[in-house]
Design a protein that fits this description.
Elements: E1 2-6, H1 13-22, E2 26-31, E3 39-41, H2 50-54, E4 59-62, H3 72-90, E5 94-100, H4 109-123, E6 128-133, H5 137-147, E7 153-156, E8 160-161, H6 166-179, E9 185-188, E10 194-195, H7 196-206, E11 213-216, H8 220-227, H9 243-251
Helix pairs in contact: 1-6, 3-4, 7-9
The structure holds NADP nicotinamide-adenine-dinucleotide phosphate (NAP).
NADP nicotinamide-adenine-dinucleotide phosphate is lined by residues 6-7, 9-13, 30-33, 43-45, 63-67, 75, 98, 100, 114, 133, 135-136, 139.
Length: 265
């Protein structure tokens, strides 16, 4: 099949594209900055290049997103609407959309736009499948770096957390492409649901750091829904790679590799 991947240059996209190729598909990647022969220029925010990008395509794997940016609604919501419109015109047979576990219940600006994009996919004319994933380990490590800028690692108190390997999410997306439209929202999470502070502790241990951990109580519905476990999935906990596996790959099993507390990077 000829598959268009939006967001094919991003963290999830770069592990999804080779898997689609391995599975025997021909892949076209939509990007604002084409670099390889596979890439076609296009911008979800303006609609530039979308008509040509969907031409002749059997399925679309829609991963592109502008998280935490001022233009999130223009890319994630209006961009998805534009993509669906062009895809319907071109007779594309399947759109696979990646979303996030908890978008329906945890209040956050980004989640609200992801949820609106999901609704457009569900209500649109293009046959669809949706996969909601829990956070990737790289994203979680980014959070931990941000949370430790001031010294102690500030973590949300009593908050269950679950990371899933991006490669395993990519496997799920490739499988969805192969099976055809499911008209269902599936979930995928990693093998472990553990309190966020345990993630922080394991991260500090792997880096050989003795920084203290400071749990904070998040107020309001955001904190409450997170503490209730809405960012995690038990039914979809089918990932195999754990947080510790990720840390072992990054830092080695025997502790910090090339990282010192004076120079944490
Ligand atoms: N990160 C996580 O932990 C996580 C967890 C669950 C689900 N997800 C979902 O997975 C998806 C991919 O996340 P990621 O972490 O791989 O994202 P990422 O690394 O930030 O990549 C974002 C991608 O979106 C594309 N993009 C942004 N604005 C665009 C525009 N105006 N037009 C066309 N393309 C645009 C970028 O392409 P160019 O820059 O090449 O144009 C890039 O390939 C997102 O939908 C996210 O919600 C992420």
């Amino acid at each position: 099949m000829l598959i268009l991947v939006t967001g094919g240059t991003g963290a999830l996209g770069t592990v999804t594209v080779p898997r689609l190729v391995e599975d025997g598909h021909t892949v076209r990647v939509l990007t604002r900055r084409p670099r390889t022969e596979r890439d076609v220029r296009g911008d979800l925010e303006t609609g530039e290049g979308l008509e040509a990008a969907v031409n002749g395509v059997d399925a679309i794997v829609h991963l592109a997103s502008a998280p935490h940016k001022w233009n999130t609604p223009r890319v994630d919501v209006q961009g998805t609407r534009r993509l669906l419109g062009e895809a319907a015109q071109a007779g594309v047979g399947h759109l696979v959309y990646v979303s996030i576990v908890g978008v329906g219940t945890v209040p956050s600006r980004y989640f609200r736009f992801k949820r609106q994009a999901e609704e457009l996919v569900v209500e649109g004319q293009v046959p669809w499948s949706i996969l909601r994933a829990t956070p990737f380990p790289e994203f979680t490590e980014g959070m931990l770096r941000t949370f430790s800028r001031l010294g102690p690692v500030v973590v949300p108190a009593r908050t269950p957390w679950q990371v899933v390997d991006a490669g395993e999410v990519a496997d799920g997306l490739v499988s969805m492409v192969g099976h055809g439209p499911s008209y269902a929202v599936d979930e995928l999470g990693g093998p472990e649901v553990r309190p966020f502070d345990e993630y922080a502790r394991a991260w500090l241990r792997a880096r050989g750091s003795r920084r203290p951990i400071m749990p904070v109580w998040l107020m309001g519905r955001t904190g409450r829904t997170q503490r209730q476990g809405h960012l995690t999935t038990l039914d979809g906990a089918n990932g195999r790679k754990s947080w510790q596996d990720y840390l072992d790959e990054c830092y080695g099993t025997s502790g910090a590799k090339g990282v010192s507390e004076k120079n944490p990077s």
